[in-house]
Structure formats: structure tokens, C-alpha cells
Amino acid sequence: xxxxxxxxxxxxxxxxxxxxxxxxxxxxxxxxxxxxxxxxxxxxxxxxxxxxxxxxxxxxxxxxxxxxxxxxxxxxxxxxxxxxxxxxxxxxxxxxxxxxxxxxxxxxxxxxxxxxxxxxxxxxxxxxxxxxxxxxxxxxxxxxxxxxxxxxxxxxxxxxxxxxxxxxxxxxxxxxxxxxxxxxxxxxxxxxxxxxxxxxxxxxxxxxxxxxxxxxxxxxxxxxxxxxxxxxxxxxxxxxxxxxxxxxxxxxxxxxxxxxxxxxxxxxxx
Length: 270
Ligand SMILES: C[S@@+](CC[C@H](N)C(=O)[O-])C[C@H]1O[C@@H](n2cnc3c(N)ncnc32)[C@H](O)[C@@H]1O
What we know:
alpha/beta; Rossmann fold; 2 domains; seven-stranded mixed beta sheet; two-stranded antiparallel ribbon; 10 helices; 9 strands; binds S-adenosylmethionine
């Protein structure tokens, strides 16, 4: 079956899932989505889409297990250190100076919080080294999955979650031994919010920096193009979009952004 020959039972199931979770099933790469759906169907002992719909009707907690199977939540502090290097050495100092510390960031698809907390650590460190305060900086951290957001708010991590982070930063901003957490100042800059990136409006007001990494790869090309346009519209002039190593900017939106770092896929709205 392709997108041009839709199975009505599958379409009805997608609609049900979209209504309940805001996933936007139609925008995902279909083969991948159907593989993950099949995993949950097998786990529930059903073999048709209608039967699985009945399972969802009977047990709403199955939506959570389905979301977990569909969305990949893997993340780390300082994941892909080179990308953070560009943020630390170029993007954040420039924004900090231009906005006088009133930097507004959006981590879209933040999973369990490692990405927005890393950003917060870099902003705090910038404030520390420039003798200013980070009180006016803010990070909106959003994700579709309520279970990962609960873990993000709790902010308890295994020591290995910090493997990629420079030791000086871990020493300054992380506490605990077996189970570690970030210091309260790091948490204070971040606001977590449940948000379906293909459906919900961007956090207001517009952002100086949007970080969206390891999220867009799961969407089909037309959906990627629409999402990139939403990101551009959600940036202030002079604001940055950071996609990192994996995602590539596609579509007309490329004419609306200037590339600032090719390897780390850092773009700027003129
Ligand atoms: C692999 S994690 C990326 C975490 C972090 N950005 C990083 O690069 O380490 C992908 C996240 O995107 C979220 N996600 C997937 N589809 C989404 C959607 N439609 N709306 C919002 N978040 C979504 C998942 O729940 C998951 O937490």
C-alpha cells in the first residue's frame, strides 16, 4: 500500500491517533510508521487495524505505549559536541550581545531535557564569563510525548548522560553521583511544554534561536518543507535555526535563510 492507495482502516486509525496525541501520522515516513505500529499490534495480540483501534478504545494507556514505539527519545547532554561548539563560540555570544542577554530559544523535540538543559548551561556560562546575568534568557522546550517531558522535569540522569559534556561544565552545573541532576539555575531558564510540532503554533513570542535536531528525519519531504517554513516564520530577523549534523534543509525555505555553518547546519534568517 502507498499513500496513493490508502487502506481505509489504517486511515481511520491514523485519524484516531492524531485526535488523541496530535502526532500528525500523515506527515511521517509511512514505512517506518507502519513498522512501529505493527510492533504494538503484535504486543497487543491483534492482527488488524480495526482490532487495534478497539484496543485503544478500551485502554487509553496504550496511546502512551504507541507513542513511545513511534517516537525515538534517544538523547544526551552535549550530543554532537561540534554543533554545541558552534553554538558556544559563535551563535550564543553573538545573540547575547545583540539582545543584551534577552535571548529567547526554542528546543523543538526536546525529549527528556538533555538538549534544553545543555543550552541553559551554555547561556549561564556565557553570563558568568561576561559578568552579566542570565535572568532574562528563556528556553521553551517542547515535545509531543508527555512521558519524556515528565522525565525532563524530574531531571534525574545516569552519569553516562554527561559523557560528551566538557568536564568543566559538568563540574560547574551538575550535581550528584549515581543519579545526577542539573543545578537549580539551569532548570530555572527552561519551560517544558507539551507541543505537537506539526500541529501546534510555535511558542510566542518569536525565537532568537530554534534548535531542532533528530526530529525532522522521521517526517516525509512535504512535511519537512512545511515544518521548516514554520520555523522560519517563528524566528525573529537575525535569528538562528540549528538542525545539527543529521537533518538537511529542503524546499523553498532555503532561499529565505543564509547558511552560517555547513557541517553543523546552522542557518540565519536575514
Ligand atoms: C531523538 S529525540 C531528539 C532529542 C533531541 N532534540 C536531540 O537531538 O538529542 C526526538 C524527539 O522528537 C519528539 N517528536 C517526534 N515527533 C514529534 C511531533 N510530531 N511533535 C513534537 N515532538 C515530536 C519525540 O517525542 C522525541 O522526544
